[in-house]
Design brief:
Number of helices: 9
Number of domains: 2
CATH superfamily of the largest domain: Jelly Rolls
Shape: globular
Bound molecules: adenosine-3',5'-cyclic-monophosphate
CATH architecture of the largest domain: Sandwich
Strand content: 25-35%
Structural class: alpha+beta
Number of strands: 12
Amino acid sequence: MIEFLRQVPLFAKLNEDQLNLIAGICSKKAVRSGTILFREKEPGSIFYVVYMGSVKIFTSNSAGEEKMLSLFKEGESFGELSLIDGKPRSATAQAMEDTILIALSADSFLEVMRNNFEITLGILQELSQRLRDTNQHVYDLTFLDARSRIIKNLIMLANKNGIRNGNLIVVRHPLNYDEISQMAGVQKNVLMQVMRDLTDKRIVTLGSNDFSLHLDRLRQPS
Ligand code: CMP
C-alpha cells in the first residue's frame, strides 16, 4: 500500500510517517466492471483513489441520457467535492472494468486535509485543473466543429492511454462509441460518420478493444 501511495501524485510530497498514517486509515475495495460507486445527488461519504482499473464520472438527465465528464485511472482521485462543500454528489461514478479503489471516509479525508498542507494544495491544484479542463471543453463546444472535437478527443485519449511507436500510437481504453461521443460533445451518428472517414483515410485503424492513430497521416491536409 505504501509503495502505491508514494506514486499517487496527490501524496507524492509526503514523508514516510505521513504515508504510514494515510495507509493506516484507508481501506482497499475491489469492484466488478459496471459497479456504480455512488450516484449523483446522493450524500457524499467517501473519497476514492483508483488503485487499478478505471472509473467513469458522468451526469444524466431525467430521460437517462448520459454526459461523461471524466475518466479516472490508476493514481487519480475523485469524490472530494461533496466532502468539501457538504452538498450532494455532483455526478455518478461507475467502474469501467474490474477495479480496485483506495477509500478514505469523509472524516479521515477532512482530517488529512486539515493536517497536511501539501495534500490540501494538491486537492486545490486538482480542482483548478478540472475548472481549466471544463473551460477548455466549453471553448471547444463553442468554437470547434464536431470533426475537430472528435479528433482532439482521440488525441487526448492517445496522450493519456496510448503507447507510441514512431508515428503510430496504439490506444487501449475502456470507452465505447456512446462515451467517446459524450466526451467530444457530438451525436453518436456524427461520431460514426467521422470515424468512418478517419478509417477510410487510414488515419485511424480499429482493433477489437483498441484503436491506432497514425500521426503522419493525421498531419496531412485532408
Ligand atoms: P463529488 O461531487 O463528491 O462526486 C462526484 C465526483 O466527480 C466529484 O466529487 C469530483 O471528484 C468528480 N467530478 C465532478 N465533476 C467533474 C468534472 N467536470 N471533471 C472531473 N471530475 C469531476
